[in-house]
Structure formats: C-alpha cells, structure tokens
C-alpha cells in the first residue's frame, strides 16, 4: 500500500497539512516529530525536518527506515533563479543537485558527490506530472514550471553568488534541502518530487522579500500537495 512521506523544512511549510490530517500516531526521532495518519484519504507521514541539508537527509532516511514510505514529497519555498519565475510561482523538480559540492580536483564536475554515480538526482516523472496538473486545478492563477532545483547550506541573497549558481547549474530555483532529500531518496530507491513556491529572487532583495512572502508561498505549495495525494 502506498504511504507518502511529506517533508517541510519549516513549520509554516507543513502546518496547514498537519492541521487537516487525521493523526494515528506521533513518533519523535532525531529531535523531529513524525505524524502518521491520513490526509485526503491517503496514508501519509508529515514532518518538519528543520533547515538545511543534514536535517533533511536525516529526516528522509527515517521516513524510509521507520515508516517505509513509498514516495517522498518535499514542499516549501525557494529563491527564483530565472527572471520570468516570479514570487508566488511554483517550481516542480525535474531533478535536484547540490550547488555547494566541489570535488573538481579529482575530475568530478562541480556539484557532483564523488562515487555516487550521478550529478543530479532525477525526480519521478509521474509525481512531477501530477504536481503540475494539480497546480493548474488548485492554483489556476499561479504558473507551475518544471525544472532543476539546486540546494546548498546557504541562503542566497547576493547577485554574484546567484549568477555563479545559474551559470554552473542551470537551476530554476535555489533552496537548502531539496537535493539532500533527493539524494537520500535516490540511495533508498524511493521515488520523490520537490515542490517549491517562490518566496524571493535570491538576490539583494531577498532579505526583505522573503519574510513578507514565505507564508503565502508555503501555503501555495502545501495546497498543491494535498490535492495530488489521492492521485499518486
Ligand atoms: N526564517 C528562517 C530561516 C529561513 S532559511 C529562520 O529565521 O529560522 C530559508 C528557507 O527557505 C530554507 O528552508 C530554504 O530551503 C528556503 N529558501 C527560500 N529562499 C531561499 C534562498 N534565496 N536561498 C536559499 N534558501 C532559500
């Protein structure tokens, strides 16, 4: 039977989903609270991982080991890396990579973790298509883009750093967890998708834009996740 693990880095990214689910049990592990139950008629485990790649990877592994989830969805907010992708729009991952990994000295392309065997971790096509079609139904005024999501342990709010990331990785948006969730899901052979709503433009305007838009952006992404659950 399918069981969907839903990860948000921050409480505001999962609070709406948690408030609507029927909770059957709560398990605390690695200082994270995993809530298992049903949402929109679907078995789910919803959790706030905490911010950054280590928290997100740990969380993903626990979802696989303790809860045996069959699919993983990461919902949240991100900084846009494309002019046409505006605050409030949605990016659905085609794949995800680490923009802060650099082992070029031993011949690996920038971003590739040695000996894992791939630079970018591919999202599952069915989940990607469901997320895009759900967005059209739930948020008809919001554009949904499909593209690469890049992650690192940095909040990007500097035009030069943003340009370096765009040039090297061709990402659509940048955040701090997606690639590590993708990486852990890949190692566990669990299909995943990352869904992010844009909270800022990942440049000097981000420091002021992010706090204003994070809540509404997080809600867009969560509404989409709720809608797609029974269709998986
Ligand atoms: N407000 C939080 C910190 C948020 S860090 C606090 O004070 O504790 C930013 C979060 O939003 C991360 O989870 C990251 O995934 C995402 N994010 C949004 N915009 C981003 C950007 N420009 N660069 C990196 N991560 C971003």
- Structural class assignment: alpha/beta
Determine the mean pLDDT: 97
Low-confidence stretches: none
The radius of gyration is 16 Å
Widest sheet: strand ordering? 5-9-8-6-10
Report the portion of residues in β strands.
Answer: 25-35%
Alpha plus pi helix count: 6
**Count of strand segments:** 10
3D architecture notes:
It is a single chain. With 232 residues, the chain is α/β, with parallel strands linked by helices. It has 6 helices and 10 strands, in the order E-H-E-E-E-H-E-E-E-H-E-H-E-H-E-H. Strands 5-9-8-6-10 form a 5-stranded mixed β-barrel, surrounded by 4 helices. Strand 8, helix 4 and strand 9 form a beta-alpha-beta unit. The mean pLDDT is 97. The structure holds S-adenosyl-L-homocysteine. S-adenosyl-L-homocysteine binds next to strand 5, strand 9, strand 10 and helix 6.
């Amino acid at each position: 039977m399918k069981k969907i693990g839903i990860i948000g880095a921050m409480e505001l990214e999962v609070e709406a989903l948690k408030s609507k689910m029927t909770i059957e049990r709560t398990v605390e592990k690695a200082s994270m609270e995993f809530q298992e139950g049903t949402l929109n008629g679907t078995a789910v485990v919803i959790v706030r991982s905490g911010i950054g790649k280590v928290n997100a990877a740990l969380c993903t592994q626990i979802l696989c080991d303790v809860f045996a989830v069959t699919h993983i969805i990461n919902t949240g907010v991100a900084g846009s890396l494309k002019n046409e992708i505006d605050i409030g729009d949605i990016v659905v991952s085609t794949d995800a990579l680490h923009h802060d990994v650099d082992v070029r000295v031993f011949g690996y392309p920038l971003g590739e973790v040695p000996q894992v065997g791939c630079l970018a971790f591919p999202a599952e096509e069915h989940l990607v298509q469901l997320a895009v079609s759900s967005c059209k139904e739930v948020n008809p005024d919001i554009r949904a883009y499909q593209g690469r999501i890049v992650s690192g342990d940095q909040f990007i709010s500097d035009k030069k750093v943003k340009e370096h990331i765009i040039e090297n990785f061709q990402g659509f948006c940048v955040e701090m967890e997606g690639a590590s969730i993708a990486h852990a899901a890949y190692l566990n052979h669990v299909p995943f998708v990352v869904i992010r709503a844009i909270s800022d433009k990942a440049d000097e305007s981000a420091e002021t834009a992010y706090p204003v838009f994070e809540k509404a952006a997080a809600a867009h992404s969560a509404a989409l996740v709720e809608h797609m659950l029974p269709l998986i």
